[in-house]
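Task card 7
Instruction: Convert sequence to C-alpha cells.
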Amino acid sequence: MRGLIGKKVGMTQVYDEQGIMTPVTVVEAGPCVVTQVKTKMKDGYDAVQVGYGDRKKKHLTKPIEGHFIRAKVEPKRILAEFDMIPGFEYKLGQEFTASLFKSGEYVDVSGTSKGRGFAGVIKRHNFHTQPKTHGTKNTYRHPGSIGQASDPSRVFKGMKMAGHYGNKKITLPNVEIIQVDKEKNQILLKGSVPGARNGIVYIVK
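Output:
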C-alpha cells in the first residue's frame, strides 16, 4: 500500500536521547480495509480502494450497500484510492494498519483545514493594520486601495480581499514520521497537520 486513511488525535511532544524536544501530531492510521481492487483492463487504471471508519447500514444508499456486500466487508465511512505496489497481490477484505510505516520515513499528509468563516484581510492574508491615528478614523482594519481609477478601470483577478477563510484541502509534503506505535495503531508526525481534532487525514508514501 502507498498510503492509509487516518484520524487526527491531537498534538504532543517527544524527546530524543539528547533531550531535544520535537512537537508531533498523533494520527490514528487505519485500520483500512480493501473494498475494491481496480485494474487497467476493467476500470482503465490500477488502484486500490480502501475504507476507514464504521458506518451504520441505515445511512447507506442501495448502490453503496451493494458495493460493500460485494466486497464482503462492513460498511465504511470514508473511501479513498491509493496507487498499487507492483507485484503485491491485493485481496478484498485485506486490512492495513500503522505497521505499514516506519520511523524516519517521509510522507505527504493531506487534510481539510479548519473553517473560519468570513474573515477580513488581516486575519486571512496577514495584512498590516493601518495607523490608528492621523485621520484614519475607523478604517484601520480595512484593506485600503484595491486598484487604479481610469486605467485599468477594473479590479484584477486574485486581488487579496476579505472572504471565506479555511475549510480547504491542504497537502503537506515530506512530513517526517518520528515514531510508530503498532499497539495503539498510531504514528507520530513531526510538526502540525491540517485540520481539527478527529479530522480525517490521508497519509501517502
